[in-house]
């Protein structure tokens, strides 16, 4: 490691860094704007100037930009030198010349990098007397608010949006001091990563629109370390609350998973927590069909009574924590516990687990995906099903660039130079999918194939890698897919991505065989399999294939052998065809539903119990790589909401369930769960338990400058209530406690003296993009411990007639998620329920966009709106998952379509935001 | 000994003289003391010269408040202005330090020379926006934050605030 001298003091710094990185890593404050740890340096803002001396005798030195100067052994620098510090002050003074007088009405205020840097550089009084430039704002959709006047032209937004995230609809426009960052016209930002502009912009040009209209400063937000429940990636988030409402979600740095960036579903898709659809009370259906609010203890006693006398079935959920599912499993017994995942999906998950066990490949974290240098995606629409991974893939194809740069001894942080050098050279990425995906622009080869042909492609590539193919018939394969096999063999770290999204087990098996072939060749091979929900893998491991499947339960319902049905956080109408669920819910004598938001299943229940959302309770989720992670309550559940695991434990205690009598708190359930099977061992080590203290103190959820403590609830009573004791977690609902180095999984928010923005995270890291100083527990379930479910699944009868279309599952980042699609902002972006048709198919049926078709499948008929997707292959139709009608069609089944004659076209909906917000 | 005696006599003489000076005590509440305009008493929320509420709900008063007795929630009005949806001061906690007034970037929150706010019931010491907002500009007559700020509101387009140039036409090729 080179030793450098800064202001007369010697420091050892990592090789290959620049001075700015090195200074920040050493804990020295040096202002900067355009540099970003994940995006490298371009040296455009001139803010990080330091003096570099040639030798110990040199007293004058020269001014260099910290972010563009590599560290060298023996190099001498000065940050505090008068010439450097006054230069930095002048720079910020010139940046502030046009900055508006907006801070009080700016949603960035209080966590603004520009404010921090202005104070740090020492600029105070405005001397310029000329007029300030102004700009008109643009409407950028329901998620992002634009205020162009505040721009300091650091170019970070376009560098993130275009260069890093591959977006194309945000750019720098006009020239010299007219430069403008926006779209070519008003309209929503198309990239699914646009929300990161909120954190990437060092000032308030791009802000969270939901927050702007219901604003709370960062110092007033109560936060807790949390995990995004939106998909199976498990990004770390830091949601903020005030006055009982979830205000916003910010990124929480985790070097293995999300790094500095989240997707828009994660960032904006959590405010369903404040929804009016929250179940307000424990309710029992009265004779008139309406729900009466009843006393919860009475309800629990009644349920417990029913449990001991009747046949009970419990249906769990892949969108809630392991603990909730474990509590339900204990309450009803393993043989009566159903995962609540549809048959088809269970089979796919089992196939994934089998693939992982058999192939011997490594399961990469998103960070490791970024290091892979040849990628094959089989069927999975990653941008819509595991969005954050798509961002990692965009970095992975840059490995070729970094190799080329290394050849010229160019450091990887030399962003502009590297991009100039490599132009469009990319590491190979091959895509096989029934339709176009948002990663097509970086793919070297795109194969538009039906799911069964994707599997064929996979097997062909596998045998090409194995070198088995020799007969002439298979030479065509070599012609078509030879370059895939070649690229994978040439790579140092090849990666195969597939998942349950393509809804075809043979595709997953094909992915497995390619991986095995590569492993057999001695390659360091990675296999990434994507699941559809936050805890799909977790609940499958919990169940271990012991419990009944959904269709088994439907059968039991038909035989009238179910008396009590407990459904936990699962809307069955999204899992199976309507007529089946209807029959089941009617057959059961008593249906008890625990859920967060009101839904179709709740409507059919006899007793409804309000459950806490992810932001109000503790829970463990297992992500796609088998990594267990804990989310902590951000704020207290509003009465009478309680975590599902708490309700279930209560019922268990009343009915004297042996196991559950001993459970006093979350940690007990968690511990019991980890001891219950060898697969889940270790999930109690995911985060410190409730007794964890640092120097006898808890970790505060509120920043030390949290305001309004004695006035927030003074309207109710002037006598301030005591802060609620949090007996379940090591965190406190208070501003007092330990705020120094903490374990990574217990960092509710980031702040450091002088660094109010999220850039303060570097004070908690060891080097940029490095590990957290407080350490981090990484609990990953080893692949050899995975136990696959033994469920036998009837294969869907495929109708391969000419007149039949194959139903292909399609996913939308906004709309497929059950809960996220209820968040304001996202509601506007959700597409309507529709069936996607290729042009040829639409022509044959004589329909166009907006018309209706009737789909005849095994579950009867469904009327759906037509959307033409010209990238779809002609014998497939896309069914968007998560929409009300979609559950009636099994992906993979053959559908016959007819034009729906009495279809009424929907009237155009005008975005509410554009309507009322002329100043927004 | 003599010295001590003289000292005692002098003290008695002085006290005697005080019997003839004017009394400092006033007959409060019939008689009111003079309080300077900058006396720090009851807090009010003022309006700008155009009669609109000055508070933009920036939360700086709340964060500056040592006993944390100010709580508010921001909202956005139809015309684009930020405003407090509610604004609450718990005067039973307030120490009249005036930090909120110093922190206020819009001159909205001001302390007045009124200290007569005793109550029999402490709950009545909790003032909401309707109790705090007055119909006037208070000590600062001319300041209107939105005339200075770059934010666009109804009646003030981009480029119409003080010291602002016309909005840039991005599509123009002129230098």
Describe the 3D structure.
- The complex is a heterodimer of chains A (920) and B (175).
- By secondary structure, chain A is of the alpha/beta class.
- Chain A contains 27 helices and 37 strands.
- In chain A, strand 24 (564-568), helix 21 and strand 25 form a beta-alpha-beta unit.
- In chain A, helix 20 (550-558) crosses helix 21 (578-587).
- The longest helix of chain A is centred in the middle third of the chain and has 17 residues, at 343-359.
- The radius of gyration of chain A is 28 Å and the shape is globular.
- Chain B has 175 residues and is of the alpha+beta class.
- Chain B has five helices and six strands.
- In chain B, the strands form two sheets. In chain B, strands 2-3-5 form a three-stranded antiparallel beta sheet. A two-stranded antiparallel sheet of chain B has the order 1-4.
- The model of chain B has no long low-confidence stretch (mean pLDDT 92).
- At the A-B interface, strand 6 of A face helix 2, strand 2, strand 3 and strand 6 of B.
Query: What is the C-alpha radius of gyration of chain B, as a whole number of Å?
Result: 26 Å
Judged by helices, strands and strand pairing, the structural class of chain B is alpha+beta
Strand % of chain A is 15-25%
State the helicity of chain A in percent bands: 25-40%
Which quaternary structure do these chains form? heterodimer
Number of DSSP helical runs of chain B? 5
CATH class identity of the domain at 319-340 and 541-685 in chain A: Alpha Beta
* Termini gap of chain A: 51 Å
Q: Helix segment count of chain A?
A: 27
CATH fold assignment of the domain at 319-340 and 541-685 in chain A:
Rossmann fold
Rough outline of chain B: elongated
Report the biggest beta sheet of chain B as strand number plus sense, adding barrel if it closes: 3 strands, antiparallel
What is the overall pLDDT average of chain B? 92
Radius of gyration based on Cα positions of chain A: 28 Å
> What pair of chains forms the biggest interface?
A-B, 51 and 55 residues
Coarse shape of chain A = globular
């Amino acid at each position: 490691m080179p030793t450098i001298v800064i202001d007369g003091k010697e420091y050892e710094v990592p090789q290959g860094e620049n001075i700015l990185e090195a200074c920040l890593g050493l804990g020295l404050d040096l202002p900067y704007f355009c540099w970003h740890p994940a995006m490298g340096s371009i040296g455009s803002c001139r803010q990080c100037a330091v003096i570099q001396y040639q030798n110990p005798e040199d007293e004058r030195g020269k001014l260099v930009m910290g972010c563009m100067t590599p560290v060298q052994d023996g190099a001498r620098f000065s940050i505090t030198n008068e010439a450097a510090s006054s230069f930095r002050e002048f720079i910020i003074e010139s940046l502030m010349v046009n900055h508006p007088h907006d801070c009080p009405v700016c949603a960035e205020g209080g966590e603004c990098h520009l404010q921090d840097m202005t104070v740090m550089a020492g600029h105070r009084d405005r001397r310029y007397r000329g007029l300030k430039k102004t700009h008109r704002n643009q409407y950028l959709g329901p998620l992002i608010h634009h205020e162009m006047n505040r721009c300091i032209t650091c170019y970070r937004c376009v560098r993130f949006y275009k260069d890093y995230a591959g977006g194309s609809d945000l750019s720098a426009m006009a020239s010299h001091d007219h430069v403008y960052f926006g779209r070519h016209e008003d309209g929503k930002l198309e990239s699914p990563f646009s929300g990161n502009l909120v954190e990437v912009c060092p000032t308030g040009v791009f802000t969270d629109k939901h927050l702007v209209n219901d604003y709370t400063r960062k110092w007033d937000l109560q936060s807790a370390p949390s995990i995004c429940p939106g998909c199976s990636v498990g990004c770390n988030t830091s949601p903020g609350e005030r006055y009982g409402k979830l205000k916003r979600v910010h990124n929480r740095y985790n070097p293995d998973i999300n790094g500095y960036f989240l997707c828009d579903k994660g960032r904006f898709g959590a405010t369903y927590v404040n929804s009016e659809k929250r179940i307000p009370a424990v309710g029992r259906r009265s004779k008139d069909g309406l729900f009466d609010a009843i006393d919860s203890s009475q309800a629990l006693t009644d349920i417990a009574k029913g449990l001991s006398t009747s046949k009970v079935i419990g249906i769990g959920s892949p969108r809630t924590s392991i603990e909730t599912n474990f509590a339900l499993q204990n309450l009803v017994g393993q043989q009566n516990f159903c995962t609540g995942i549809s048959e088809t999906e269970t089979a796919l998950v089992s196939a994934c687990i089998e693939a992982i066990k058999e192939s011997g490949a490594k399961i990469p974290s998103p960070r490791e995906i970024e290091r892979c240098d040849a990628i094959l995606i089989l069927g999975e629409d990653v941008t819509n099903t595991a969005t954050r991974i798509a961002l990692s893939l965009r970095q992975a194809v840059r490995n070729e660039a970094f190799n080329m740069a290394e050849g010229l001894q160019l450091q990887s942080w030399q962003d502009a130079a590297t991009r100039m050098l490599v132009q469009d050279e990319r590491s190979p990425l091959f895509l096989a999918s029934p339709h176009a995906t948002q990663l097509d622009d970086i793919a070297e080869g795109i194969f538009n194939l039906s799911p069964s042909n994707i599997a064929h492609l996979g097997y062909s590539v596998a045998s090409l890698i194995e070198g088995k193919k020799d007969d002439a018939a298979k030479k065509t394969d070599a012609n078509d897919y030879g370059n895939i096999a070649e690229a994978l063999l040439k790579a140092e770290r090849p990666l195969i991505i597939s998942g349950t999204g393509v809804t075809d087990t043979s595709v997953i098996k094909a992915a497995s065989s390619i991986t095995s072939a590569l492993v057999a060749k001695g390659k360091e091979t990675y296999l990434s399999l994507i699941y559809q929900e936050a805890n799909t893998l977790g609940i499958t491991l919990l169940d271990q294939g012991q419990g009944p499947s959904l269709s088994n339960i439907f059968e039991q319902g038909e035989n009238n052998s179910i008396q009590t049905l407990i459904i936990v956080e699962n809307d069955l109408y999204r899992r199976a065809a309507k007529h089946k669920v209807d029959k089941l819910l009617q057959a059961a004598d008593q249906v008890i539903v625990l859920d967060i938001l009101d839904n179709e299943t709740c409507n059919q229940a006899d007793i409804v119990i309000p459950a806490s959302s992810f932001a109000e309770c503790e829970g463990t989720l297992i992500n796609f790589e088998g990594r267990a992670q804990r989310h902590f309550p951000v704020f207290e559940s509003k009465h009478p909401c309680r975590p599902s695991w708490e309700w279930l434990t209560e019922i268990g205690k009343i009915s004297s369930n042996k196991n559950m009598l001993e459970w006093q708190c979350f940690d007990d359930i968690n511990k019991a769960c980890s001891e219950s099977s060898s697969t889940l061992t270790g999930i109690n080590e995911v985060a410190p338990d409730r007794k964890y203290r640092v120097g006898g103190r808890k970790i505060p959820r509120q920043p030390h400058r949290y305001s309004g403590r004695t006035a927030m609830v003074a309207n109710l009573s002037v006598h301030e209530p005591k802060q609620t004791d949090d007996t379940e977690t090591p965190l406190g609902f208070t501003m007092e406690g330990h705020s120094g180095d903490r374990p990574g999984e217990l960092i509710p928010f980031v702040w450091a003296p002088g660094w109010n923005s999220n850039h303060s995270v570097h004070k908690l890291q060891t080097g940029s993009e490095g590990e957290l100083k407080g350490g981090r527990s990484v609990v990953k379930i080893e692949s050899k411990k995975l136990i696959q479910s033994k469920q036998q699944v009837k294969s869907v009868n495929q109708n391969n007639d000419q007149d039949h279309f194959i139903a292909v599952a399609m996913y939308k980042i906004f709309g497929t998620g059950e809960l996220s699609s209820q968040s304001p902002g996202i509601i506007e972006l959700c597409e309507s329920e529709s069936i996607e048709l290729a042009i040829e198919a639409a022509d044959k049926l004589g329909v166009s966009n907006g018309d209706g078709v009737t789909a005849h499948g095994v579950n009867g008929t469904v009327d759906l709106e037509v959307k033409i997707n010209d990238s779809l292959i002609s014998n497939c139709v896309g069914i968007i998952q998560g929409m009300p009608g979609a559950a009636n069609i099994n992906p993979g089944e053959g559908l016959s379509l007819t034009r729906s004659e009495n279809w009424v076209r929907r009237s155009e909906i005008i975005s509410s935001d554009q309507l009322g917000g002329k100043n927004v | 000994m003599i010295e001590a005696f003289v000292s005692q006599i002098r003290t008695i003489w002085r006290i005697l003289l005080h019997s003839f000076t004017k009394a400092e005590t006033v007959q409060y509440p019939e008689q009111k003391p003079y309080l300077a305009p900058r006396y720090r008493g009851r807090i009010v929320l003022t309006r700008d010269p155009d009669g609109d509420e000055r508070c933009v709900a920036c939360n700086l008063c709340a964060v500056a408040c040592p006993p944390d007795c100010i709580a508010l929630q921001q909202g956005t009005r139809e015309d684009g202005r930020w405003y407090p949806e509610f604004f609450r001061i718990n005067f039973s906690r307030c120490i009249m330090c005036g930090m909120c007034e110093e922190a206020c970037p819009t001159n909205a929150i001001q302390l007045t020379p009124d200290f007569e706010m005793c109550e029999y019931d402490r709950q009545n010491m909790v003032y909401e926006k309707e109790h705090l907002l007055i119909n006037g500009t208070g000590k600062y007559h001319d300041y209107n934050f939105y005339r200075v700020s770059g934010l666009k509101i109804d009646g003030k387009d981009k480029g119409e605030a003080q010291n602002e140039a016309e909005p840039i036409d991005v599509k123009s090729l002129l230098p």
